């Protein structure tokens, strides 16, 4: 199975069902009361993190996800059924971005974690809701609202505690194999590792463990696309500890300098990570050579651990050092949490625009008109677009309660002025004076 760590999908939540406009009917009864039920809620699209799927590959083939619409309400106060939610199962470590805004909308770091990425619409209320002492037979009901639609990018970042970085052939995979039960391909040609591999490293007493990620080798110029490029650095962008793996027989100081340059080009904050150096293949050189290289590497200010993945030298010391150095998960999370987009549906602020329309034929004065935008009033209207005329009185009372009349008054509206919201027009009055 190919390893896939980025996938673009489209999601559409279900619409809410419309409320019903209905009147009770019974034998021997002329006309009963309103009994239109509410529409059901639209289904949402929910991401759920599951274990053990290392790649997004499973999802390929399905790029569009839709959730069920809510059913409409019916007479006899029957409420429409809610639409079913649609779950998309993704590997732990998946981050979802809104492709249009670029914002992070979900960041799943624990198995079982769920996040709604497209909200289902609301069901409309049936006409039975809108009765009042003066309105006993409302001939209107509310429409459901549309479900949220989004273009989403899913990105998988392995959630490993420790990340191995180094030039090709430095022995990263050999180290992972020596420290864990993982079984990565190991060979003496560059770019043996083509996709990230995870292993679990246990402490000697078996009490503690951390996960370690082995990623493809990085070379000078990777930031310009040389070798396999830097894309795989995404998977170590969230590790708490970086281990630079260097081959003592090459030029470790120069290689580390170049590695850090490439990391900096990808994401400069990577260089702030807690890090250590595993100086590998030390069985191939004299101990004084290793000691000399260790001295030279001291200028980087990082702990240096001489090892031989092949011969098993220095491995217990390396492992113990990594357990010691690994930053506390909770503390780390506090400073590295991705910002989540809180999905509050922000209403546009209310604006009132005044204009004078030319007087109608025969009328003595121009018509004074107030255009209303924002404040949620237009959205409210569209929910009654089917029975706008019948709902007019209800709506103008509602808008009054919601402060529209007060705002108009402050802006200088006079009795008899026309208020215009989209295509809906009504006369302004102020019965409180
Ligand atoms: N002599 C010696 N050879 C080693 C040691 N560690 C790894 N090797 C050899 O170095 C070669 C590369 O090892 P890998 O573990 O595949 O290296 P890598 O860093 O994962 O390489 P890429 O996946 O290509 O980036 C293999 O032939 C290993 O057997 C060591 O400690 N001593
Ligand atoms: Mg490898």
TrEMBL record:
List ligand-binding residues for GTP. Answer: 166-173, 191-195, 214-217, 280-283, 308-310
Please state which protein family the record places this protein in.
Answer: Belongs to the TRAFAC class OBG-HflX-like GTPase superfamily. OBG GTPase family.
Task: Pinpoint the Obg domain residues.
Answer: 1-159
GO CC field? cytoplasm
Which ranges carry the OBG-type G domain? 160-327
Cell compartments where the protein resides: Cytoplasm
Task: Note whether Nucleotide-binding occurs among the keywords.
Answer: yes
Q: Which Gene3D superfamilies match?
A: GTP-binding protein OBG, C-terminal domain (3.30.300.350), GTP1/OBG domain (2.70.210.12), P-loop containing nucleotide triphosphate hydrolases (3.40.50.300)
User: What does the UniProt keyword field contain?
Assistant: Cytoplasm, GTP-binding, Hydrolase, Magnesium, Metal-binding, Nucleotide-binding
Task: Look up the EC number in the record and give it.
Answer: 3.6.5.-
**Protein name according to UniProt:** GTPase Obg
Briefly, what is this protein's role? An essential GTPase which binds GTP, GDP and possibly (p)ppGpp with moderate affinity, with high nucleotide exchange rates and a fairly low GTP hydrolysis rate. Plays a role in control of the cell cycle, stress response, ribosome biogenesis and in those bacteria that undergo differentiation, in morphogenesis control.
One Pfam entry name: DUF1967
| One GO term of the biological process aspect | ribosome biogenesis
Q: Which residues form the OCT domain?
A: 342-430
Q: GO MF annotations for this entry?
A: GTP binding; GTPase activity; magnesium ion binding
Quaternary structure note = Monomer.
Q: Which PANTHER family match?
A: DEVELOPMENTALLY REGULATED GTP-BINDING PROTEIN-RELATED (PTHR11702), MITOCHONDRIAL RIBOSOME-ASSOCIATED GTPASE 2 (PTHR11702:SF31)
Q: Which residues bind Mg(2+)?
A: 173, 193
Names of required cofactors: Mg(2+)
């Amino acid at each position: 199975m190919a390893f896939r760590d980025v996938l673009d999908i489209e999601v559409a939540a279900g619409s809410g069902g419309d409320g019903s406009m209905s009147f009770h009917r019974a034998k021997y009864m002329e006309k009963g009361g309103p009994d239109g039920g509410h529409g059901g809620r639209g289904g949402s699209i929910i991401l759920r993190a599951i274990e053990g799927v290392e790649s997004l590959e499973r999802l390929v083939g399905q790029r569009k996800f839709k959730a069920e619409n809510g059913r409409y309400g019916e007479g006899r106060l029957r409420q429409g059924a809610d639409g079913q939610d649609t779950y998309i199962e993704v590997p732990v470590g998946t981050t979802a971005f809104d492709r249009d805004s670029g914002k992070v909308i979900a960041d799943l770091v624990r198995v079982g974690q769920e996040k709604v990425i497209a909200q289902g619409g609301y069901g409309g209320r049936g006409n039975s809701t809108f009765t009042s002492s003066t309105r006993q037979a409302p001939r209107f009901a509310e429409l459901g609202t549309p479900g949220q639609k989004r273009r989403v990018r899913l990105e998988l970042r392995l959630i490993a505690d420790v990340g191995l970085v180094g030039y090709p052939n430095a022995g990263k995979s050999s180290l992972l194999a020596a420290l864990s039960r993982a079984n990565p391909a190991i060979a003496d040609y560059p770019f043996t590792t083509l996709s990230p591999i995870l292993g679990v490293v246990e402490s000697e007493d078996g009490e503690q463990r951390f996960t370690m990620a082995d990623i493809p080798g990085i070379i000078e110029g990777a930031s310009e696309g040389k070798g396999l490029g830097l894309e795989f650095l995404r998977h170590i962008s969230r590790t708490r500890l970086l281990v630079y793996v260097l081959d003592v027989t090459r030029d470790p100081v120069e290689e580390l300098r170049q590695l850090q340059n490439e990391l900096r080009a990808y994401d400069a904050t990577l260089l702030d990570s807690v890090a250590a150096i595993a100086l590998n293949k030390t069985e191939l050189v004299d101990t004084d050579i290793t000691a000399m290289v260790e001295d030279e590497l001291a200028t980087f200010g990082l702990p240096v651990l001489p090892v031989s993945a092949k011969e098993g030298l220095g491995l217990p010391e390396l492992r113990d050092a990594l357990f010691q150095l690994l930053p506390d998960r909770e503390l780390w999370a506090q400073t590295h949490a991705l910002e989540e987009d809180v999905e509050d549906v922000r209403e546009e602020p209310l604006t009132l625009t005044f204009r004078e329309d030319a007087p109608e034929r025969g009328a003595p004065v121009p018509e004074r008109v107030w255009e209303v935008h924002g404040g949620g009033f237009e959205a409210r209207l569209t929910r009654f677009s089917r029975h706008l005329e019948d709902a007019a009185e209800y709506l103008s009372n509602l808008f009054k309660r919601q402060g529209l009349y007060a705002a108009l008054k402050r802006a200088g509206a006079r009795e008899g002025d026309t208020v215009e919201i989209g295509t809906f027009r009504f006369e302004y009055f102020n019965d409180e004076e």
